[in-house]
Amino acid sequence: MQNTTDKGKPNSSPVLPTTFNLKDGRECLLRPMVEDDAKELCEFLPRTHEEADFVNYMPGEFNKTVKEEREFIRNHNGKPCSISMVAEMDGRIVGIAGGASLEFRRFVHHAECGLVILKAFWGQGIGRKMMECLIDWSRAAGHRKLYLKVFDHNERAIRLYDSLGFVEEARLKGDVLRGDGTYGDTIIMARFFVG
Predict the structure, then answer these.
(1) Are strands 92-100 and 145-151 parallel, antiparallel or unpaired?
(2) 47 with 117: CB under 8 angstroms?
(3) What is the pLDDT of residues 132-190, one digit of tens each?
């Protein structure tokens, strides 16, 4: 479980920080997201929206200010059971991931997670390592399941989640407007930790 200190900075997570080698041998750092990341995230996020049709924002829709992004990070990190992380290469953010539980007692037994990675770093193992960290965090938090939403045309991500033990729980038909004007499904996938 990741909470915040009086200064709004995340306490240490059971899984972060950590370093690992990419498939090409370069070293990548996974560390907690902090408010000081806000400026870089305001540049990173619109770039990911331009690169792929797999994220919630369409190109040009993201318009948060650095102040608003800082507040978002502070609020997320301040939730009783949340985690947010960045993947960093040579001092710059190349991926982000996070997870959180709802605060209602009926729902604290599970958490939702998500991630996004710059296209230049796809296929290097960053998504897998981030998901493994999210799984470890969720298990350590005592969740019964960890779930995510993925667009049906994001086949690479679906293969990754499947390989990590996630199963399809539901499909929301015609849920998402794709960049080409067609509608696709949103798939809800979950990894269960106990019966």
Answers:
(1) unpaired
(2) no
(3) 999 999 999 999 999 999 999 999 999 999 999 999 999 999 999 999 999 999 999 99
Which architecture, in CATH terms, is 18-144? 3-Layer(aba) Sandwich (3.40)
pTM above 0.70, yes or no: yes
Q: Helix 38-51 and helix 66-77: axis angle, to 10°?
A: 100
In one-letter notation, the amino acid at residue 173 is K
Residues whose CB falls within 8 Å of the CB of residue 2, separated by 6 or more in sequence, listed in order: 10, 11, 12, 13, 32, 77, 81, 82, 83, 84, 137
Q: Is the pLDDT of residue 51 over 70?
A: yes
3-class SS letters over the chain: CECECCCCCECCCCCCCEEEECCCCCEEEEEECCHHHHHHHHHHHHHHHHHCCCCCCCCCCCCCCHHHHHHHHHHHHCCCCEEEEEEEECCEEEEEEEEECCCCHHHCCEEEEEEEECHHHCCCCHHHHHHHHHHHHHHHCCCCEEEEEEECCCHHHHHHHHHCCCEEEEEEEEEEECCCCCEEEEEEEEEECCC
Tokens of 130: 């981030």
- The letter for the amino acid at 21 is N
